[in-house]
Each structure stands twice: as C-alpha cells, then as structure tokens.
Design a protein that fits this description.
Elements (H helix, E strand, L loop, with lengths): L1 H4 L5 H31 L4 H7 L7 H11 L9 H7 L7 E3 L2 E4 L9 H14 L4 H14 L1 H22 L5 H9 L9 H10 L10
Antiparallel strand pairs: 1-2
Helix pairs in contact: 3-4, 4-6, 5-8, 6-8, 7-8, 7-9
Length: 209
C-alpha cells in the first residue's frame, strides 16, 4: 500500500501501463484521422458550416452533423415550423372530440433531436447569450426544464433555417427584440384562448355556477 501511495510500481505494472497508454494513443490517432476525413468530405459546405457555427451552443462538428441531416437547401421545407416538425421538436397533434390528449413531442428526428438538445443545454449555460437563457428561464418557470430545453432546441433549429435560407449569420439582436416586443393584438375564440393558456402551463377551470 505504501509503495502504491509513493508512486512505486513494479516492472510488470509499468509494462501494463505502457500498453494502455499505447492503446489510448492509437484511439486518439483514429479520432483525429476520422475528424480529418469528415472535414474533407464536408469541405464544399464550409460556408454553410461557418454560418451555422455562429448559432450559440453549436460548434464545428455539431454544425457538420446538423447539415448532414437537414442539408443546406431550405426550400425543401415550406417554413421553419415544417423543419421543426420533421426534426421531432413540435408537439403531436393528438386531438379527439375537441380535447387535446397529449402535448408530447413526436418521435421523429432520432439523430438530430438529441444533438440539438445537447446544443441547447450548452447554449443556456453561456451568459454571452442572454436572449436564449432568459427565454429558457421564462419557459422553465411555467412548464419545467424538459419542455424548456425542447423549446430552446426548436429556437436554435428555427435560427438555423433562417440562417441557411437568408445566407446570414446568427443575429442575437433580432431575438432580443422579439422577446421584448409584446404580441400583436388579434381576436381569438374561447377555445383558442384556452388552448394558448394550457400551452403556457395554466390550468383552466370552468366558471362556478
């Protein structure tokens, strides 16, 4: 025990450590070679990768993975909502007899959805992106952490859609203005008003007789 604490090892242990270190070095070399190959294949999409990398929480290889999933031609999606639905980031439309049975997100986007969730978790930790963190905290108060993270992932994908469509980098000022701008006045039915309140986490009860 004392020999181990002092850092003394026998020749056999030293040989084992040498083999382990050699194995780890081999794995690291394989990783670097694989990353180099991926970047070589993705080189023709470098302008779009750089644009997507301007989105908070998204680094180079995350941008490569996202573009590999959705492509760079956003004309295949009618709107950003269609893209978010394709990626499984919108609630399912499970309604019967006027009653909404569930607001869970769909199971689509088996690869891109977990990736965007990880990017969202990274984005909300950065104090340099207050427009994202404030939106997360606002939704978290009403609907909890999980739904708030999905909302941020949807926000990031919406940003990516507009970035690729307009060929412009991420602009935090636009999102800050949207968060500070009150919604436009519009007429809604009682059913629509109830649905909006329920989406925001409120429990709507009928008036007492």
């Amino acid at each position: 025990m004392l020999a181990a604490v002092d850092g003394e090892i026998c020749a056999e242990q030293a040989e084992k450590l040498k083999i382990i270190r050699s194995h780890l070095d081999g794995i690291e070399l394989c990783r670097l070679n694989l990353e180099s190959l991926i970047l070589t294949i993705a080189e023709k999409y470098l302008p779009q990768i750089n644009l997507v990398s301007t989105v908070p929480g998204i680094q180079t290889f995350a941008a490569v993975s996202i573009i590999a999933e959705i492509g760079v031609d956003m004309s295949v999606f009618a709107t950003s909502k269609h893209l978010c639905s394709w990626a499984g980031l919108t609630p399912q439309n499970n309604e019967s007899a006027g009653k909404k049975k569930t607001t869970r997100i769909s199971r689509a986007g088996a690869y891109i959805k977990p990736l965007l969730v990880q990017c969202a978790l990274c984005a909300i930790r950065k104090k340099s992106n207050p427009e994202i963190r404030s939106r997360y905290l606002s939704i978290k108060k009403r609907r909890g952490h999980k739904k708030a993270i999905i909302a941020i992932a949807r926000m990031l994908l919406t940003a990516i859609y507009n970035i690729l469509k307009k060929n412009e980098p991420y602009n935090s000022e636009l999102y800050s203005r949207c968060n500070n701008t009150p919604p436009e006045h519009r007429a809604v039915s009682v059913e629509e008003a109830i649905f909006i309140l329920q989406r925001q986490g409120y429990i709507v009860t009928p008036n007492a007789p």
